[in-house]
Write a structure and sequence with these properties.
Layout (H helix, E strand, L loop, with lengths): L1 H13 L6 H5 L4 H14 L8 E5 L7 H7 L2 E6 L2 H11 L5 E5 L12 E7 L7 H14 E12 L19 H10 L1 E3 L6 E11 L1 H7 L4 E10 L11 H9 L2 H11 L8 H9 L9 E5 L5 H10 L2 E6 L2 H14 L4 E6 L9
Parallel strand pairs: 1-2, 1-4, 2-3, 4-5, 9-10, 10-11
Antiparallel strand pairs: 5-8, 6-7, 7-8, 7-11
Helix pairs in contact: 3-8, 11-12
């Protein structure tokens, strides 16, 4: 791990000399992207009134100023001195901010002292071992019921900045989800075990629209007690679904039985009969809870001109739905992995 940290430090020393937005985002279009991305990302966060927030990998403070207006207190952390000083210079006038220069792998905070952790492009600079350790520390820092929001570049790089040396870990979405939901810690008295459950996982649409890049992914996780009744000792019910109930192979088998785009009885005929009763109009927004692989969503968008957001707890279901969405070329249909019992929307 010492070598990993040394490589990351050298990488960011090279890309933090002027503490500019372009350096921090490793992209020549940083300002244009930020203008569109900031409101999108902030709209994903839960209400932060009364919250103590920990911002990890804060950089020069793109999000800090906004978090400070939303929360009671924000502790903002980055391990590059030039970034921390720029953030302090721009946001130090706020009375509810603490600025810390530290490597997150060495950061120590009191247990249960934080309500919400915000991390943007940090975890991809940690090895798997470091990430697992960091997730366990986050669980300890958070109060029960607290939230972790993180956003990462998955699969490959996104920025256009030249890099002669690049130690970044470009994990898949599935790898992040597995590592995050597998982490767990015991309460100090040993009476309970806590872990993360996924509230939602979704793409950053700004990057899809501006760069044709579907690999910028956000997660919102909640710290919850682990249940001993989860089937077959999977950490979460979602892991059970994706590894047993709805494996990718199993989903495609269901589709052969029930019709293209469908994984349950009734298929296209029942969907048409039911949806035709809804009196849908062009431009309306439809939320499909338990969308499966999206057959009904594509039908509604094509037939009635509505915008559809499909939610499903199964990662495998949503992965297949998004593959089909690219084939269908329907930007009015979007999908996300989400727990419908926890997902919130504006009234």
């Amino acid at each position: 791990m010492v070598r990993v940290r040394s490589n990351m430090t050298e990488f960011w020393k090279e890309h933090s000399k002027d503490a500019t937005m372009e350096e921090m985002m490793l992209d020549s279009r940083a300002r244009e992207l930020t203008e569109q991305e900031l409101p999108e990302i902030l709209s994903m966060l839960p209400p932060l009134d009364g919250y103590r927030v920990l911002e990890l990998g804060a950089g020069i403070g793109r999000y800090t100023s906004h978090l400070l207006t939303m929360a009671t207190h924000v502790t903002t952390v980055d391990f590059m001195e030039s970034f921390v000083e720029r953030n302090r210079r721009d946001n130090g006038h706020h009375g509810n901010a603490t600025f810390v220069q530290a490597d997150v792998t060495k950061l120590a905070l009191p247990h249960h002292s934080i309500n919400f952790i915000f991390s943007n492009w940090l975890l991809m600079y940690l090895s798997d071992e470091e990430l697992t350790c960091c997730l366990e520390k986050m669980l300890n820092w958070l109060q029960p019921g607290g939230f972790l929001f993180f956003r990462e570049s998955c699969n490959h790089r996104s920025g256009d900045c030249k890099r002669d040396f690049n130690p970044t870990c470009y994990r898949s979405e599935a790898q992040y989800s597995h590592l995050a939901t597998s982490a767990q810690v015991e309460a100090s008295d040993g009476s309970q075990t806590f872990g993360f459950e996924i509230v939602f996982k979704k793409k950053v649409q700004t990057y899809v629209e501006m760069k044709n890049n579907p690999n910028q992914i956000c997660w919102l996780l909640q710290k919850v007690p682990r249940s001993s009744s989860t089937p077959n000792r999977f950490s979460t019910f979602q892991q059970f679904l994706d590894n047993q109930q709805y494996t990718r192979r199993g989903i495609l088998r269901y589709e052969k039985m029930f019709g293209a785009g469908y994984v349950s009885t009734g298929g296209p005929s029942t969907t048409k009969e039911f949806v035709d009763l809804l009196n849908l109009k062009p431009g309306q927004k439809v939320l499909d809870v338990g969308c499966g692989i999206g057959g009904g969503d594509f039908y509604m968008a094509k037939t009635f001109g509505v915008d559809v957001l499909g939610l499903d707890l199964s990662d495998n279901m949503v992965d297949i739905a998004m593959e089909r969405a690219r084939t269908e070329r329907l930007p009015s249909v979007q999908f996300e992995v989400a727990d419908a019992t926890k997902r919130t929307f504006p009234e």
